[in-house]
Specification:
The protein is an alpha+beta fold. It contains 2 helices and 9 strands, in the order H-H-E-E-E-E-E-E-E-E-E. The chain is globular, with a radius of gyration of 16 Å.
Length: about 170
């Protein structure tokens, strides 16, 4: 088993059996596993963060109309299918946060967007592994309040990696 297979198996186990799962008991009973794109090593990047000189606090609207505070840290740029893409990295007390919407939102991926929790390497580069992209809990249960990716993080390219749309 590789790291992705293990990660996915643990997540399915959590979703189906844990009391903290975002699934309702009825959903857990019917749950057959999350759907994922095949792992694509070309959608894992180690990138320099182009840090903003002033890292402002911003309010991000959530799926329930609440506001959550994040810090705009900087941007990262990369290539997907020979197309340039740039995303804003946010941060909070838990670390880096990358909410994004790709060109397949509402088709192959969750319409409101997906998330990544990038980490820094020992060399100070940010790891963006889209194979670990995940749906927010509100994709499974409307009782959760999830940050909505801002307009600056809406991509015109598809990111066919990570979690797919939940049926």
């Amino acid at each position: 088993m590789n790291q992705y297979t293990q990660f996915r198996a643990r997540k399915d186990e959590f979703f189906q059996h844990d009391t903290h799962s975002p699934l309702t008991p009825a959903q857990q009973h019917e749950f057959e596993g999350l759907r994922y794109f095949p792992v694509d090593p070309g959608l894992r990047f180690e990138l320099e963060i182009d840090r903003f000189p002033q890292q402002d606090q911003v309010q991000m609207l959530t799926s329930t109309g609440d506001l959550r505070t994040f810090t705009r840290v900087g941007t990262v740029s990369f290539q997907v299918d020979d197309q340039s893409a740039t995303l804003t990295i946010f941060g909070n007390q838990h670390g880096f946060f990358l909410p994004f919407v790709d060109a397949q939102a509402g088709k192959e991926t969750y319409g409101a967007g997906r998330y990544l929790d990038p980490e820094l390497t020992s060399e100070g580069k940010l790891v963006l592994d889209f194979n670990l992209a995940y749906n927010p809990y509100c994709a499974y249960n409307e009782n959760y309040s999830c940050p909505i990716p801002p307009a600056e993080n809406r991509l015109s390219v598809p990111i066919r990696a990570g979690e797919r749309n939940f049926p």
